[in-house]
Amino acid sequence: MKKIEVSSLRKGDRFSKPVYLDPDTVFISSNSPISVADLERLTKFGIKEVYSDGNKIEEAIAENANKFSDDKLPFLDQNEDALRLKVFYDKIIHNRFEFDTIYSSALEIVKKSYKIIADGKSIEIREFRDVAEKICDYVKNNSQISVYLNSFHQNNNYLYHQVVNSTFFAVVIGMNMDYSRPKLIDLALASLMADIGMLLVPNNISEKTGPLDEAEKKVIYKHTLVGYQVLTQRIKLKNTLAVVCLQHHENFDGSGYPQKISGNSIEEFARIYSIADNYSSLISKRPQRQALLPHEAIKKMIGEMVTKFDLKMVRLFLNIQSMYPLGSYVELSDGRIAMVLDVNKDKPIRPSVRIIKESNGEKVKTLQFSNLGTDLQLYITKPVDAKVSI
């Protein structure tokens, strides 16, 4: 187990696996926040170190989990649709911790490895492949994965979250293209390494809030080539995977960079990652703009941005996400606020939802669900920001 200095612990810290005082004594169970009383107890007994096999779960990941933390509300509705959605929601709750653990592990590997590479050193691909396998197996067994990804909002470490989010979305697309497990793992591995060149871009450019000048744009445009060179020459990643790093900013209409290639000249993995990367970027806050709602991001991608992507793939992505993506929030015609839980394939603008707030703005006191595909008296008036649900 890894040693953790008690002086580094803070109130609210969570870990993906239990924290131990010694090999036999659990101090904090997995995913449980450390309290002030816990910290005082360690100080009182003079304990300087604790141990865990897990990783610290970042604040953003903990906040994501909190959106599903009120699952102990009483459930009183007994109609067939509500019972079905309750089972579906219970599965989301049950599988959320595994998602948090895998996400946290992927984020840790990406942060650590990208920084090592930025320092001019090399890394082991094995760690990336291990987490790629976990991501693929999780996505294949959990159709509700988008609920977590679309409701996830990070406040810092944008690049690392962007890479991990895009990898999950890329695997979702690959799975719906009937990729074999080995091919999915290769896609995930390539995706996790796709933006490695961005860490070699100076912060004053990558974090700039205003428009980039021509010199700064040239630096940004080089990050794909620099990353590709690092992956092929220093890391020795095979070209079929490293090419995702090189080509993920190429556009289907030939307007991208660095080579301005188009159509099927762009490798399939890169075309998939381009869609995943663009969507994830649009729903995330950037230094130069606010995040779009998932609904707005989908509209932008199938509207003004559509020529950038392989049309067959972007249509597939739309079918996966729908116009109201899982995990996004909407306002209903009666004024209530709801989270989208499930897609009705034959009625894409009438999904199944979980009610979060009453029309007067108060949080619901019971678990409430509605299938808008059958409850025709209700409809969605507009998508809303996740903050409205707090």
Summarize the model shown.
The chain contains 13 helices and 11 strands.
Please specify the SSE layout and strand pairing:
Elements: E1 2-5, E2 14-15, E3 19-22, E4 25-28, H1 36-44, E5 49-52, E6 56-57, H2 59-66, H3 80-118, H4 125-141, H5 145-150, H6 158-176, H7 181-192, H8 203-206, H9 214-234, H10 239-247, H11 268-282, H12 294-302, H13 311-321, E7 329-332, E8 337-342, E9 352-357, E10 363-371, E11 380-384
Antiparallel strand pairs: 1-5, 2-6, 3-4, 3-5, 7-8, 7-11, 8-9, 9-10
What does this structure look like?
This protein has 390 residues and is an alpha+beta fold. It has three domains: 2-57, no CATH class; 61-68 and 78-321, Hypothetical protein af1432; 329-389, no CATH class. It contains 13 helices and eleven strands. The strands form three sheets. The chain has a five-stranded antiparallel sheet with strand order 10-9-8-7-11, with helices on both faces. Strands 1-5-3-4 form a four-stranded antiparallel sheet, with no helix packed on it. A hairpin with a 5-residue loop joins strand 9 (352-357) and strand 10 (363-371). It is globular and about 60 Å long. The mean pLDDT is 89.
